[in-house]
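Aim 2 progress update. The chain analyzed this quarter is reproduced below.
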Amino acid sequence: MKKISFCLFITIFTQYAFAQQKPLKLWYTQPAALWEETLPLGNGRLGMMPDGGVIKENIVLNDITLWSGTYQDANNYQAHQSLPQIRKLLLEGKNDEAQALVNKAFICTGEGSGRGNGANVPFGCYQTLGNLVISHHQNQAKDSYSGYSRRLSLDSAIATSQYQLNGVTYTREYLTSFDNDVCVVRLTASKAKSLNFTIGLNRAERYTVKTTGNQLQMSGQLNNGTDGKGMKYLTLLEVKSGDGKIVSTGTSLTVSNASEAIIYLSAGTDFKNYGFLEKTASTLNAAMAKPYSLLKKNHIAKYQKLFNRVALQMHNDKNDQPTNERLIAFNKGTNDNGLLILYYQFGRYLSISSTRPGLLPPNLQGLWANQIQTPWNGDYHLDVNVQMNHWPLEVSNLSELSLPLADLVKELVKPGEKTAKAYYDAKGWVAHVVTNVWGFTEPGEDASWGATNSGSGWLCNNLWEHYAFTNDKKYLKEIYPILKGAAEFYNSVLTKENANGWLVTSPSVSPENNFYLPNGKIASLCMGPTIDNQIVRELFNNVITASQTLNIDNHFRTILAQKLTQLPPAAQVAKDGRIMEWLEEYKEAEPQHRHISHLYGLYPANLITPDHTPELAKASMASLNARGDKSTGWSEAYKILFWARLKDGNRAFKVLKQLLFPVYSNAASMNYDGGSYANLFCACPPFQIDGNFGGTAGIAEMLIQSNQGYIELLPAIPDEWKKSGEVKGLKARGNFVVDMTWKDGRITAYKISSPEKKKVKVKVNGIVKEIKSV
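Predicted structure tokens:
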């Protein structure tokens, strides 16, 4: 009887038609006043952010590969000679003296990795490509227009702006083509021959603009920090118009008396791209040879192949206010689950728009930067940020977008081997706290943050998760040398601490945090911070599993298994009931610090779970309560994930609401001022895209979890979501796709499918059962 009931249960969902999803859009009734109000478009390589200005429009342009700086060797090859003394001082409890020695003899030799000042030194900086400026209606008053709207459709990856002026409706349509790899702006007017505008290209520095015929060209070369001859770039722009007149000056194009005009922009750099000048030109020509209708159709189709994999609906999805007003209303108490759906899908949209296989992963700004010296260099921070950028991908059915990170990590192995030898005289490879497109693996410029040596191990977690979700053994074989090399490093450097004889990293830090020593001084440097112990434990276990799966490296597997018995426990509980961040119960210098690194074992790892380690789960709650909910944007996103793993949906929802708190200033702050800008970009502040991706992952984690050996449906659903909802297309570990509906907080129907039918455990309405996927 139970089997028959279950079959009916599955069949009901199989026959169930997923309700029509409400159109997903961001929209506004005014042009953007700040860059953080503009609408982000991107095809994984090229990006643009139009402000929708009426008289003068500025569209910020980006290319994911455009970096200043260059390859460098910033290793101090004498550093390992000071390692014994550093470790001796740490064993003696003289952390402050050890830290002073690290700052003297154990940091990188090049500038730029710290404090975000890399633009003009070899470390480099991710930079804006420039600006496309369109000047309209030069003889009209700025306040004479009406009926203004500005929109971004997440369903089609197309933005629009529209307004009326002197009885004419003007419409602009913007897209970054997923089909032809160009940026396109289409301008139309309701009255024939009403379009009159001028187009220019500019950049804050290092650019030349000229016209060749009716083609506008901008080119230049960035600073490499040595002789000034860094990366080269080229931007080409042309306009098509059936009835308009196009005239070129030395540095601009003017279009007059047109009913329609289409701007095509192609750009490229010489980053691993020989012949980029010719490729940039041929890409532009190919796009212009297609009818706009076909280019647009193909763009939408290719984008939707990724975006349409997941659909989510809940009750209270009726709010149709402009997005900026919607944020304000939500934080004043309006129930608006539609805003949360929009935010979740916006995160997926940003992922699709900011990377694609064969290119670079999203950096601190994703794809979008409007400065020469981008905040914190727009680089890849390895102590949570780039990892967080990838957390929503697997569960949100965008697995292939994890591959650019794997490619980046592959290129860290060789330089990381040099760094491991220079600083630790160790085998394997290591990366510390930051990296860039030039393969930087050295410690940072100050021990207080730069001595973090767990960056490589944390990256391996992301690589492993892609395998866990896809079961792709070919991929596992490709990444195994990376995982093994990272494990070889930690295996080489682990050293005994005094109190228990555990093997730990030394020296290291708990990312960006510090503590008081008994002498009253503040230090960061320590032995075996909790996050290191957790990362090493997880990495060793994953390498053992991989070697068994691939049937290789029996000897190394045995070594790691033996070392596992000598590591500290996954976490220790302090006298006050919290998870200890360090081996010793140091007094924290900043109890509400934005980093919560000692809970790595709770998320993204699987070392702390309510089922298997309830005492550690309880201690994790105590740690989160002590840290507080309010913080920088990305930190709030991380806390959503922690509370979701702890199965507290209401607390996760509370922090999610804080993440959507309206922020109006783009000034940098570490004073717990996080939230969201009007365009839903996450405010650290300033803008950092990791908070968007962390928030997206958090929403998914509230709906589905698969980290405890079974798939759990609605593990952390808050009261606000319980009435009714449905989702299709989420992924679970083991390469399962999950669809489900619920009412009053209980699952009413679900389907679990996979390429190969196989048994899987699923927890539904509190009961774990084993079923066979369809």
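Residues 128 and 371 are 6 Å apart (CA to CA). The chain has 20 helices and 33 strands. These observations will guide the mutagenesis experiments scheduled for the next reporting period.
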